């Protein structure tokens, strides 16, 4: 059974519409959410978590609709987006002391492990962190409460290649533990390294949602990298 199901999701803005977005996520699999800037990745993710209110469709977590269960679901979901600065002048350790109170399943051992892995200094404030370290701090919080699914919007944004590889290795380890990882990106090399499944969105519509091997078999031409395939498909969409 899918851990998350998105069915017929729709969100309308004056200049953009998310149309009939449907896909499913499974435990112990890494799903890359790929599409150019403005394709609808962030709108989809925020709609999944009710951070923006969809105009239609249904979202289910753990076999039941999200509606009416938001508090329970968010205890079991880790979410991170970009480089949110939280309280820019508060020390990391003070921010964490507040955040941990919201999670019944806060795992102090995991927190300390990722704090060390990401080389974060608890005595610093978010305003003292680089863009890449802010990303790591957001991920630290998302990884520290035993989440069964991680939903991450551009988690490798601002990270250097070494840090990106570290993070992808974390994803792979979490996968072995049965965690579902769903992350948006436009860095196709990240998908080639770790993704099991690909959801490809263009102009507010899902163009493909299937295992990476099946995506390659169906859409790639001889000798193409994943990036080459996505670029060719995107040009085709634009010309359609």
**Helix proportion:** 25-40%
Topology as a string of helices (H) and strands (E): EEEHEEHEHHHEHEHEEHH
**In CATH, what is the class of the domain at 1-69 and 184-240?**
Alpha Beta
Strand content: 25-35%
Strand order of the largest sheet: 6-7-8-3-9-10
Our measurement of the CA-to-CA distance between the termini, rounded to an integer number of angstroms, reads: 35 Å
Kindly state the number of beta strands: 10
Please give the count of helices: 9
What overall form do the CA principal axes indicate?
globular
CATH homologous superfamily annotation of the domain at 1-69 and 184-240: P-loop containing nucleotide triphosphate hydrolases
Give the biggest sheet.
6 strands, mixed
Describe the structure.
The protein is α/β, with parallel strands linked by helices and 240 residues long. It has a domain at 1-69 and 184-240: Rossmann fold, CATH 3.40.50. It is 38% helix and 26% strand. It has nine helices and ten strands. The protein has helices spanning 41-48, 70-75, 92-99, 108-117, 131-143, 161-176, 188-194, 212-219, 226-239; strands at residues 4-13, 16-25, 30-34, 56-61, 64-65, 77-81, 149-153, 180-185, 197-202, 205-211. A six-stranded mixed beta sheet has the order 6-7-8-3-9-10, sandwiched between helices. A four-stranded antiparallel beta sheet has the order 2-1-4-5, with helices on one face. Strand 7, helix 6 and strand 8 (180-185) form a beta-alpha-beta unit. Helix 4 runs antiparallel to helix 5 (131-143). The longest helix has 16 residues, at 161-176. It is globular. The chain starts with a strand and ends with a helix.
């Amino acid at each position: 059974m899918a851990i998350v199901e998105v069915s017929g999701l729709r969100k309308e803005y004056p200049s953009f519409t998310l149309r009939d977005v449907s896909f499913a996520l499974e435990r112990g699999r890494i799903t890359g959410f790929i599409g150019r800037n403005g394709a609808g990745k962030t709108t989809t993710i925020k709609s999944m978590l009710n951070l923006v209110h969809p105009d239609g469709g249904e979202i289910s977590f753990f076999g039941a609709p999200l509606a009416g269960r938001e508090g329970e679901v968010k205890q079991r979901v880790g979410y991170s987006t970009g480089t949110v600065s939280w309280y820019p002048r508060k020390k990391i350790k003070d921010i964490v002391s507040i955040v941990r109170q919201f999670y019944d399943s806060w795992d102090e051992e995991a927190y300390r492990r990722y704090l060390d892995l990401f080389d974060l200094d608890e005595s610093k404030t978010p305003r003292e962190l680089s863009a890449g370290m802010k990303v790591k701090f957001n991920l630290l919080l998302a990884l520290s409460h035993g989440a069964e699914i991680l939903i991450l919007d551009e988690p490798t944004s601002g990270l250097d290649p070494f840090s990106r590889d570290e993070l992808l290795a974390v994803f792979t380890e979490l996968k072995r533990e049965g965690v579902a990882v769903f992350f948006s990106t436009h860095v196709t090399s990240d998908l080639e390294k770790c993704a099991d499944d690909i959801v490809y969105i263009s102009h507010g519509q899902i163009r493909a949602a299937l295992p990476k091997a099946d995506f390659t078999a169906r859409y790639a031409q001889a000798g193409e990298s994943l990036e080459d395939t996505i670029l060719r498909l995107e040009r085709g969409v634009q010309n359609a």
